Amino acid sequence: MLKIYDPDVAPVFFTGGQIYVPFGVYDTNLVSDPLTLEIGETRETAALLGFEYAGVGGSVYGFNGDHKLNGDNRIGSWGASLSYAWEQDDVAVAASAGWINNLGDSDSLSYKISASRPYR
Predict the structure, then answer these.
(1) Reading across the β-sheet that carries 91-100, which strands appear in turn?
(2) Which tens digit of pLDDT belongs to each residue from 29-82?
């Protein structure tokens, strides 16, 4: 993974390589993973462009997912995220939203989809 970021120069950064794309926040203290993590976690070789400034952050990313239609192998998966975090004294607030254009490329669903589609 490569991350290019210098907050003293600009609030923008670039990340490239194999990463967990920022789709969902999966902080948990449970013994087993929550269903949202099981379905949505996506680790891919991706290119991501993002920013962080005054508690607001966001990113857009693209990757070549595992799910292919009629054997077409191209970079066709993408997503975006937006977040906000605020902290003062003993109070903290965090919120985020994310979008991924093909949830079928997530780690758990891509296997299930490819197993059910022999023309892949």
Answers:
(1) 2-5, 12-20, 43-53, 56-63, 77-88, 91-100
(2) 778 888 888 788 888 889 999 999 999 999 999 998 766 666 666 677 899 999
DSSP per position, 47-99: EEEEEEETTEEEEEEEE--S--STT--S--EEEEEEEEEEEETTEEEEEEEEE
Burial class of 52 by CB neighbour count within 10 A (0 to 12, 13 to 18, 19+): middle
- Domain map (residue ranges) of the chain: 2-116
List phi, psi (to 5°) of 30: -80, 160
- Give the containing element (helix H, strand E) for 100: strand 91-100
* Diameter over CA atoms, the chain: 57
Consecutive H or E run containing 40: helix 35-40
Q: Give the predicted TM-score (pTM) of the model.
A: 0.78
